[in-house]
Amino acid sequence: MAGRLRVIARRPAPHLEAETPAIIVSPRRSSATRPKPLEIQPSIPGRPPLTIWPADPPAGYLGQLDPRFQTQLEERWSDVRLEDCHFYHSVRLPDGSFIEGPWDLLDNEHEYLGGIDLAGRRVLEFGPASGWLTLWMAQEGADVVALDVGWDLSYDVMPLSTIDVEKARADSIALATRVENAWWYLRREYGHSARAVYAPIYDLPQDLGRYDVSVFGSVLLHLRDPFRALEQAAARTDGTIVVTEPLNVAPGDIERPILLWNPTASTNWAGWWSLSPGVVTDMLGVLGFPFATVTYHSQLYRPPGVPDSVPTEATVYTVVARRQ
């Protein structure tokens, strides 16, 4: 595996002095030249964008993995169009065209997920966004269930005094709709067999089943209670939990159990935390996944909503924690 592996079984007490650990960041793998991105029009005159949510969920959010229910979901999104979509990750379409999103993981997905072997494994993916990693894991041979907000749910909105919180929740539902449209668009275009479940991340459906691997791809920073989400995953995961997050702490703090509150200084209602690798490994150790490695790698990031911005390399870390 490219990059430095740091095996963590026990961390020193916080009051003990320690040398600042070196961080070795794996360079990005070379990737094919991107063609000019497709321009996605927000709507077609006379035809409103496809809107699925909000809607009434099934009781207890149960029964969603029933094949008949999955067929119903597939039918609901059968005519989804590009103009209905918002892509969080850059994607390639089967015809070779390219859609640019804020994060570009193309040809670097292996590093993003910590180099784990996915073939034949049951994977529970939390917060799949527009579905590029879902697709990639399915193509690697994983049986993927992607869990996201939907029905009567929205993203966690930080109740900033500077915003209209109810409007922000409504905006978050509108955004979730377009992101999930993109997930179903990719599923249809590539014909992969991953399944989707829409349920609260802090109280998972009782019939969700068990998994070999759970994956959190840059999700914890957006959650009001990241530990609760990890706890829910741990209760359903037999082997490995993978957590990837942007690295936004100082090198001397990477092994310390640090949660930085409100890192955007109240400019982003979705920016609850910056998490150190140390706090993620510590949380997972508490939850019964004490054998962890941490790798550091570069991924392309283009700030959304910034005119004329260009992708730059951002340092990201991945924790792969195992029960044994």
Q: Can you lay out the helices and strands and say which pair or pack?
A:
Layout: E1 6-8, E2 25-26, H1 67-76, E3 91-92, E4 98-99, E5 103-104, H2 109-112, E6 122-126, H3 132-139, E7 143-148, H4 165-190, E8 195-198, E9 211-217, H5 226-234, E10 237-246, E11 259-261, E12 273-275, H6 277-286, E13 291-301, E14 312-322
Parallel strand pairs: 2-13, 6-7, 6-9, 7-8, 9-10
Antiparallel strand pairs: 1-13, 3-4, 5-13, 10-14, 11-12, 13-14
Mind telling me the C-alpha Rg? 19 Å
CATH homologous superfamily label: Vaccinia Virus protein VP39
Overall CATH class? Alpha Beta
Specify the number of helices: 6
Major sheet size, sense and barrel closure = 10 strands, mixed
According to CATH, the fold-level topology is Rossmann fold
Stretches with pLDDT under 50, minimum 5 residues: 1-17
How many domains comprise the coordinates?
A: 1
CATH level-two architecture: 3-Layer(aba) Sandwich
The secondary-structure class comes to alpha/beta
Q: What is the β-strand count?
A: 14
Overview of the structural elements:
- Mean pLDDT is 91; it is low at 1-17.
- The chain has one domain (6-12, 28-322): Rossmann fold.
- The protein starts with 5 loop residues before the first strand and ends with a strand.
- With 324 residues, it is an alpha/beta fold.
- 21% of the residues lie in helices and 22% in strands.
- The longest helix is centred in the middle third of the chain and has 26 residues, at 165-190.
- It is globular and about 65 Å long.
